UniProtKB/TrEMBL annotation:
GO terms for molecular function: acyltransferase activity, transferring groups other than amino-acyl groups. It comes from Pseudarthrobacter psychrotolerans. This is GNAT family N-acetyltransferase. InterPro entries: Acyl_CoA_acyltransferase (IPR016181), Bact_Acetyltransf (IPR050832), GNAT_dom (IPR000182). The lineage of its organism: Bacteria, Bacillati, Actinomycetota, Actinomycetes, Micrococcales. Keywords: Acyltransferase, Transferase.
Length: 175
């Protein structure tokens, strides 16, 4: 599936909200009343304090992701020189078609074009096994020393990191 990654426009926000909600709920990551769902669904706030991007295929938005940098409100783990991505969600209707892989490759391309960015970081809950397989297949490596727990909850979050110098060539070789 051919996918184009671009910055989300306000007109995309309802679709970003729907895709994110549907992806997290259908994967059983959270229940609809979990407090984090309100964070995921507040696309306006995300766009105000980070970069919300969408992936389009055949004229429709099929995925969304949030990009942030060290010191910004949506950054959880980025250090200086890292691009962090969060809240990657692929519409359940197209999951398994390569959209998630295309989005992460697009993030890698974008990171390589940014001056001063030498790596990409991502936090992923231990139960998000499909995401871990995707990240590792594209060259991301676990960084256990940076793992952390959600404050007030018994949820361990794993950190994955990719050096972007030469990362695209390496990820294409693995594909």
């Amino acid at each position: 599936m051919s996918v184009a990654l671009r910055r989300a426009a306000p007109s995309d926000f309802p679709e970003v909200r729907r895709i994110t909600r549907d992806a997290y709920l259908r994967a059983d990551h959270f229940t609809a009343d979990h407090p984090y769902m309100s964070v995921l669904e507040d696309v306006d706030h995300r766009a105000e304090h980070a970069e919300v991007w969408v992936a389009e295929a055949a004229g429709s938005v099929v995925a969304a992701v949030t990009l942030t940098f060290a010191g910004q409100p949506y950054s959880e783990i980025a250090t200086d020189g890292e691009l962090e991505f969060r809240m990657l969600a692929v519409d359940p209707a197209v999951q398994g078609s390569g959209v998630g892989r295309a989005v992460v490759r697009g993030i890698i391309d974008h990171a390589q074009s940014l001056p001063g960015i030498g790596a990409i970081s991502i936090t992923s809950a231990t139960f998000m096994e499909r995401a871990h397989v995707l990240y590792e297949s594209l060259g991301f490596e676990r960084v256990p020393a940076r793992d952390w727990h959600v404050p007030g909850e018994d949820v361990l979050l794993w950190v994955f990191r990719l050096e972007v110098f030469g990362a695209l060539a390496a990820s294409q070789a693995r594909a």
